[in-house]
């Protein structure tokens, strides 16, 4: 008997949606049951819908080629076919917010790659190794939405995935001031070099909205639940610059940090080497065995060589040294469409299932009937 949960992918024809499709192939917990996109793709098979638009260097899985794409706004129809959905739609923020709440109110949990609900106080924004305890706020969110099973959980912006985990491992030393520059791949904009030839031999020192997200979102991740919401942390002070560089995948960051209690270099390296979180404790399928890896070579991590560390789900760090203005500086790297997008969303879903937040339609129907 197949007891895998049935998944819908909203925005399944886009770059992140395609990543979800490939990551879910032969997944032990989940299987793709529905794919939804804009009305112009609705009614086509998935293979037809992504013809000439498939952006990955692996083939479309055979298991999804003949799935008929649905209109993402057909909430009732899709809800009858799935246990939960991943959301990676490309729409105005207000429309995404409404769409995700419509699915949640239809008792379909939403794990979102979008920013629309990231700063909603009762929506957990999760890096599973760091703030899995924030999932507790889901119960408050359900009360607001009037649901028994439906809720929204989000993953943070891909730009923070490289530098927040290494800083979090050092939280006991109380980082006070952090300056970060991120060098972000074009896939973060949903592009390949074929789509965006202007990026060849070019650097663009601006990514709309990225710096605000990079400075504010870590404070929610480091916040705490108070009452019916998550209250952001008040420190550290974070200043960022986000730069688009001619790289296909991988976001690299340079970090400068001052601590209240300055650690030794040996203490920092020990904390990075030993750090793990709930996904490692539970042995979740997508969890990296070693979350943080320090590289001793002077010229590492390199985007091309190291972005696929732990199948793109781990963080690599290098060049730790004392600074003339700050206490320390270092470089770190994450894969933006794996750890930073679809892979991070999938790991969050695995955690939610293991913790009992994701259940089958049969269990929902039985539970909802019993409550009437």
From TrEMBL:
Keywords: NADP, Oxidoreductase. It comes from the Bacteria. GO terms for molecular function: aspartate-semialdehyde dehydrogenase activity; NAD binding; NADP binding; protein dimerization activity. InterPro entries: ASADH-related (IPR051823), Asp_semi-ald_DH_pep-lack (IPR005676), NAD(P)-bd_dom_sf (IPR036291), Semialdehyde_DH_NAD-bd (IPR000534), Semialdhyde_DH_dimer_dom (IPR012280). GO terms for biological process: methionine biosynthetic process; threonine biosynthetic process. The active site is at 158 (acyl-thioester intermediate), 251 (proton acceptor). Residues 6-138 form the Semialdehyde dehydrogenase NAD-binding domain. The keyword NADP applies. Pfam families: Semialdhyde_dh, Semialdhyde_dhC. Belongs to the aspartate-semialdehyde dehydrogenase family. NCBIfam families: asd_EA, PRK08664.1. This is Aspartate-semialdehyde dehydrogenase. It comes from Sporolactobacillus putidus.
